[in-house]
């Protein structure tokens, strides 16, 4: 009996597979984001400008990897526009969450990193839900 070869392409409606792939992409994109944030702060960039720059770098990484690997869809203007609108909205949300966390957390050596992590976590949950249900939905 001949067996059909399996492909490594992600199944579009496989929720747990998408969650795992999204998590891997998110972890990698977060490393990019935090690395840029830390470097920008080290170079003396204003904290909010550093967060904006790091968000753009992490987001660009996330889009490229999520579109093809996590959600297994082709690109296109509509999807790219949806992604830009979603992440543009998320951008302002994470800046607000980051600023709020900086305002309420005690002034310690770990405060900036924790504020980044809180804003990143909040944005990640919002992004997964919207990517799966709106942007990368077929």
Automatic annotation (TrEMBL):
State any GO BP term from the record: polysaccharide biosynthetic process
CC per GO annotation? plasma membrane
How does the record classify its membrane topology? Multi-pass membrane protein
Q: Which Pfam families match?
A: GtrA_DPMS_TM
| Keywords from the UniProt entry | Membrane, Transmembrane, Transmembrane helix
Main localisation: membrane
Task: Give the transmembrane ranges.
Answer: 19-39, 45-65, 80-103, 109-131
Q: Name it.
A: GtrA/DPMS transmembrane domain-containing protein
The species is Modestobacter italicus (strain DSM 44449 / CECT 9708 / BC 501)
Lineage, top ranks: Bacteria, Bacillati, Actinomycetota, Actinomycetes, Geodermatophilales
């Amino acid at each position: 009996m001949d067996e059909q070869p399996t492909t490594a392409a992600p199944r579009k409606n496989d929720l747990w597979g998408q969650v795992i792939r999204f998590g891997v992409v998110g972890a990698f994109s977060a490393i990019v984001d935090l690395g840029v944030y830390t470097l920008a702060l080290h170079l003396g960039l204003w904290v909010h400008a550093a967060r904006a720059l790091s968000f753009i770098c992490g987001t660009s990484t996330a889009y490229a990897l999520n579109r093809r690997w996590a959600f297994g869809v082709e690109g296109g203007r509509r999807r790219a526009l949806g992604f830009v609108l979603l992440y543009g909205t998320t951008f302002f949300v994470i800046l607000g969450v980051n600023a709020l966390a900086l305002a309420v957390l005690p002034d310690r050596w770990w405060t900036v990193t924790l504020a980044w992590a809180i804003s990143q976590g909040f944005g990640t949950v919002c992004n997964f839900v919207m990517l799966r249900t709106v942007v990368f939905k077929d």
